[in-house]
Amino acid sequence: MENKEKRLMLPKLISHGCVLQTGERTRIWGLAAPGEGISLRLSDQEISCRADGGGNWEAYFHHLQPGGPFILELSGESGETIRVTDVYLGEVFICSGQSNMELPMNRVKDRYPIEFEKQGDARFRLYKVKENYEFHGPLKDHVEASWKECSPDTIGEFSAVSYFFGKFMRENRTVPIGLINVSLGGSSVEAWMGEEEISQYPDMKKELELCQNQKLLEEKMAGQIKAHEEWYNTIRDLEKSMDWNDNSWKEVTLPAFLKDFGLDHFNGVIWFRKRIMLPRHLEGKKARLWLGTMVDSDRTYVNGVLVGETGYQYPPRKYNVPEGVLKAGENEIRICLVCENGAGRVTPDKIYALFAEEEVIVLDGRWEYQSRSVGGAAPRVDLMSQKPAGLYYGMLAPCFPYLVKGVLWYQGESNDERPDSYEERLQQMILLWRKMWKEESLPFVIAQLPNFSIDLDDKEDAWPRIREAQRKAGVLKNVAVTVNLDLGEENDLHPLNKREVAYRMSLAVRAMIYGERVIFRGPWLSDFDVSEQWITLFFETEDKKGLVVRGGTGLEEFEIAGADGVYYSVTGVIKENQVRICSSEVKQPVFFRYCWSNAPKIGLLYNEAGLPASPFGISTLSYRKSRSGQ
């Protein structure tokens, strides 16, 4: 092999700024000329190996001690060398799932401004894998990814859950912490599974076969995109037909659902405007305009100047008004809102205000609007993030050779169309990942879905079923499930309180992986007894203390049903760790459940450490005694 042809290579995971997992062994791997011998040096160790006939090689350092920065040096028999600088040795975790795991710190900056003022931490690093799909088999390396040190310049890009988890672990362990964030908004559990597993499910197998046929997939996606663009062309034509005279505007009170003022199942474009008076000292000043969230996309103007636009419903509308736009006296705010699926809204219980210097001008209340309907909903464009196996092969597979301490998993929202299949598929995914990491007891910490309701009117009890599936995943060895019922926001799929979500996951890691005697789970149902119309539930708490009730009697979220499956509210009593309930409507209880709604909030049960009990649904026909599996 000629020296000018570079053959010695490392994967992107093993690059400048990486954190390698310490322990009994630490794997390094890469490519070289077939049969070439390679020498490696790291810390105080030197090892060697030889590439196989395909040029693949791997080598193991043993019992490396935490610390850094170090230099990883490689040299091949050909004379090629590689020096990887700024290498740390410590603990590495996978952070995976969908948007609530991917959500960056920039999205929660207003809730945690002090975090952006802190000094960096060279011993805390994040490796973010960029979005990529592959349906024909596992990639050996990431298409785009890199390690970044936690610093004031990079913190905004860090996943919020990852950031806070890493921060808590740095405080607890003191060793370098490396987090591999391999998550993507909107992704389904099936997207993180391989073809062999997917083939067991006819619905998913057919979808994967389509994705593997590049021509058919491109034709299908092109057709969907074209139909969507044509729909939007119609929207633009409707805008041109609007009458901007003052007498064409109608009054409305915002925030509100469009159906609340007669636009139920509305698809089309609606303009809102509001006129506000500003004092002279604000003329020309910069300002911030907060407009909650909206469904679906918007363009927002102040005095005719476009100050911001958002292409879909979830991001908060927080727009900057530049200098020279605001005027003394009357100012006009206009919002062009496009509603694609008949569920338009300006989301209630959000902040709607203009912040200028020290003044806050509240924008709730009287607005005006005019609208044009396009008739049918916007044609659907499939989300690639929900296609089976695509993210498993395209984003996750290159991570398998990299030794890790455990996995944090926050996902489930995108499976609420088929919640009954989630339990089996989630557990199968966990077992698959363990197989691929060659670690049959690889620890998993699952963040159970929080309270949420605003977009779930047609989903019935989908989220309780997802939570139940997550709870039952806890029957697997080395799986912990954290309960987050009190950390969500009923009107937002992406709640801001990521710090507490991460803290609860860090407690689970400390207890399950490091054996610390910390309380990491709330009360769990350990047993129950049925006597005539009464059910007595026995809970356990890690601190062996009684149940704690917040915001009610503690009975509000319990329900009982007979053989007909019709549930009724209960009466009863709570004493220490026992809950005794009955319903005058049910003489022979067959089913009972707790917090079986999308957004339970009254009378939740906690332990004294402030951790809530998991929801559950129990059939007394299936068994007389229940072990929660938590």
UniProtKB/TrEMBL annotation:
Keywords attached to this entry: Hydrolase
Domain Sialate O-acetylesterase stretches: 91-214, 404-495
Entry-linked SUPFAM superfamilies: Galactose-binding domain-like, SGNH hydrolase
Top-level taxonomic group: Bacteria
Pfam families (alphabetical): SASA
InterPro entries: Galactose-bd-like_sf, SASA, SGNH_hydro_sf, SIAE
Protein name: Sialate O-acetylesterase
